[in-house]
Amino acid sequence: MEFGLSEEQELIVRSVRNFVENEIFPYESEVEKTGQVRRELGRQIADKCIEAGFYASNLPNEVGGGGLSHLEFTLVERELGRGSQGLTVFFGRPSGILMACRGEQREKYLLPAARGEKFDALAMTEPEAGSDVRGMQCSAKRDGGDWIVNGTKHFISHADIADFVIVFVATGQEETPRGPKKRISCFLVDRGAPGFEIAPGYDSISHRGYQNCVLRFDDCRLPASQMLGEEHRGFELAEEWLYATRLTVAATCVGRSRRALELAVPHVVERRQFGKQIGKFQGVSFKLADMITEIDAADWLTLAAAWRLDAELPAARQIASAKLYASEMLARVTDECIQIHGGMGLMADLPFARFWRDARVERIWDGTSEIQRHIISRELLRPLGG
């Protein structure tokens, strides 16, 4: 592993950072106040992303994507983490799972998503099935050559702007030594399909403007051609394509924590109490030392996990470690930045309260901290029969 970035990678970092500072930062206050992203603003960001050549940078060149490596795309996500997620969602990173599209699915979903003509959303979580994916109740049953879907999904990120949704549902059950287990399949469902409703979700304190939605299926009829991947193999499909999304969470946490620290350091130099800069007091300066150490540690954990993916090495434990540590680090850093600023740290005039609120969800979505600890400990114990 190289411990320095190549010239091309440095260019990627600078370019994305400039994009975020010029196209995202100016609109953050608006989104924070309204809780919404104007549709024309979202389209403007997407169009400028396409114009700059960044759109779908996570997808291979052969489908019209940018063809970045896992490490390079992690660098992109790290820079995007510096900006409001309600706005950076329009930067355009279609779900990698769309690479499983075959035949007409490629023309209808994959290629338009890569070109920025269609937005996708991913639906797995349910009111009674969060971390327990196989506990999902939303199901599909065969009816001739079609499937009939019934049930509910919730906490579905940015489904409000999606042209189609990638939905995981139970399509059967099998007996295992540990008891019955749901068989999961994946479907591509178009907005406006009969029996399919995308409804507003909950009012979250984290990531204002980044909407979550409730999906309802009421005898929604889907032809078999809408199935993504093989029947009953949806869980394996998710394991193959989706676990790296936790790396995205880790990377964005690193980016956001660096922005918070960069904003806090000048204050420590300028603010005076008891006749001197507050940075002269160890109670403050040691906080900075701890923060930069933790940020750097999370950064290297994240980049090392991305490097393993590029090297085609097992990376489940390393990705879980990066997601766990980076998300919990962000909570500590944002909290300390507020403490350094005192009462002003909680005022809307400064961004730290927003960073602090946004940090809370990172330990929950894409696998809770408890799930990450389970993955890490399982990787350690299984080889020994544990």
Explain briefly what this protein structure is.
This protein has 386 residues and is an alpha+beta fold. 46% of the residues lie in helices and 18% in strands.
Distance separating the two termini: 31 Å
Helix content: 40-55%
Uncertain residue segments: none
Strand content: 15-25%
> H/E order of the elements?
HHHHHHEEEEEEEEHHEEHHHH
* Radius of gyration, in angstroms, nearest whole number: 22 Å
What structural class results from the helix and strand content?
alpha+beta
Strand element count: 10
The rough form would be described as: globular
Helix segment count? 12
Mean pLDDT across every amino acid position? 95
Major β-sheet profile: 4 strands, mixed
Question: Reading side by side through the largest sheet, how are the strands ordered?
Answer: 1-4-5-8
**Quaternary assembly:** single chain
What keywords describe this structure?
386 residues, alpha+beta, four-stranded mixed β-sheet, 12 helices, 10 strands, 18% strand
Describe, in plain words, how this protein is organized in 3D.
With 386 residues, the chain is of the alpha+beta class. The protein has helices spanning 7-24, 28-34, 39-52, 70-80, 85-88, 104-115, 234-241, 245-270, 282-310, 316-341, 352-362, 369-381; strands at residues 120-123, 139-143, 146-157, 164-176, 179-190, 196-200, 212-223, 227-228, 272-273, 276-277. It has a 4-stranded mixed sheet. It has a 4-stranded antiparallel sheet with strand order 2-3-7-6, with no helix packed on it. Strands 9-10 form a two-stranded antiparallel ribbon. Helix 8 (245-270) runs antiparallel to helix 9 and helix 10 runs antiparallel to helix 11 (352-362). The longest helix has 29 residues, at 282-310. The mean pLDDT is 95.
